[in-house]
Amino acid sequence: MTQDEKSQAMLMWLLCLVINIFSPIIFMLVGKDKPGVYRSAMQALTFYIVMIILYFAVWIVVFLLALVTHGFGIFLMIPIFGVLGLFGLYVIIMGAVESNKGNVFEPPITSNFARAWFKV
Question: Which of the listed residues 26, 44, 103, 113 has the most CB atoms within 10 Å of its CB?
């Protein structure tokens, strides 16, 4: 990757902290002609799609547990969402660090989905 691509890919990952899923969408559209930026944006977009699915799945499971346990299952939300949030923060930081080195960061769990869905 060129220095410009490294900077844009790192900026895309760092903006994920502020504008979440909109950052990869913006850089996907802007960086079509820059393969490193485009691949990083697709990896981040895939990561966010999978995280949204996980959040909804956790909501459903916690809701069902709350129904079964008369409301006590709701206390599982804080640690589960905390772990998902910390994992998201880890992926964003690692994406920024790897982009600064000139590599495309492939987040654990979602990199295979990115290859299948977006062919990157």
Answer: 44
b/e map of 57-91 (b: 16 or more CB within 10 Å)?
ebeeebeebbeeeeeebeeebeeeeeeeeebbeeb
- DSSP calls for 16-81: HHHHTTHHHHHHHHHTTT-HHHHHHHHHHHHHHHHHHHHHHHHHHHHHHHHHHTTTGGGGGHHHHH
Structure letter (DSSP) for residue 107: -
What does the alpha-carbon distance between residue 117 and residue 97 come to, in Å, rounded to a whole number?
Answer: 24
State the residue for tokens 């990083």: 40
pLDDT category of residue 111 using cuts at 50, 70 and 90: confident
Q: What is the pLDDT of residues 3-62, one digit of tens each?
A: 999 999 999 999 999 998 999 999 999 988 999 999 999 999 999 999 999 999 999 998
Q: What distance in Å separates the CA atoms of residue 52 and residue 57, rounded to the nearest whole number? A: 9
The answer to whether residues 114 and 108 touch, using CB atoms and an 8 Å cutoff, is no
